[in-house]
Write a structure and sequence with these properties.
Helices cover about 35% and strands about 15% of the residues. The chain is an alpha+beta fold and about 160 residues long. The chain folds into three domains: about 5-60, no CATH class; about 80-125; about 130-160, no CATH class. The longest helix is centred in the C-terminal third of the chain and has 16 residues, at about 110-125. The protein is elongated. It starts with a helix and ends in a 20-residue tail after the last helix. The model has no long low-confidence stretch (mean pLDDT about 80).
Length: about 160
């Protein structure tokens, strides 16, 4: 049986588990279109490496990929993105945003929401870390005494590595 080259190029298959037996090694591959834990795709593949030869035997199921029954969505709808950005703009906490989205019947997991909010914060406010070179340039920039009384400035600084 021939291995589908399109699956390999698009990285639709990944190693699932390996069996080591007296007759050789069997490496089972799974379809990446579904979650790792849960019901797997019917289109299975495994490679058999016999101990007595240098050949590799590929065993493929004749079944087609069946992902129509999958209830898990990796990307949530645009309407949910707009709602999340609006709720984030109102400065709601993570749990409150998740509760509002559940009330509006959006199927978003807590971790998906948390990861989306991390990306949204990074996009709106920039990175949350400061590099040592940036800190030094910020100190140099703010070292002059401003004319206004309410502007911050740096009296002295010492940056060592």
């Amino acid at each position: 049986m021939e291995i589908n080259q399109q699956d390999i190029q698009e990285k639709r298959k990944s190693r699932y588990y390996t069996n080591r037996g007296y007759d050789g090694i069997k490496v089972h591959y799974r379809c990446n279109q579904l979650q790792f834990r849960g019901k797997q795709c019917n289109a299975a593949l495994y490679l058999h490496y016999p101990n007595d030869t240098d050949e590799v035997v590929a065993f493929c199921r004749a079944n087609e990929h069946d992902h129509t029954n999958s209830i898990h969505r990796k990307v949530f709808p645009e309407e949910a993105n707009e709602n999340i950005e609006e709720l984030f703009g109102l400065r709601l906490k993570l749990k409150n945003i998740h509760q509002v989205l559940q009330d509006k019947n959006f199927r978003i997991t807590f971790n998906q929401l948390k990861n989306y909010l991390v990306r949204l914060r990074k996009k709106k406010f920039g990175p949350s870390t400061l590099i040592l070179g940036e800190l030094e340039s910020l100190c140099i920039e703010k070292s002059t005494v401003p004319q206004a009384d309410d502007e911050p400035f740096v009296l002295s600084y010492n940056v060592t590595v």
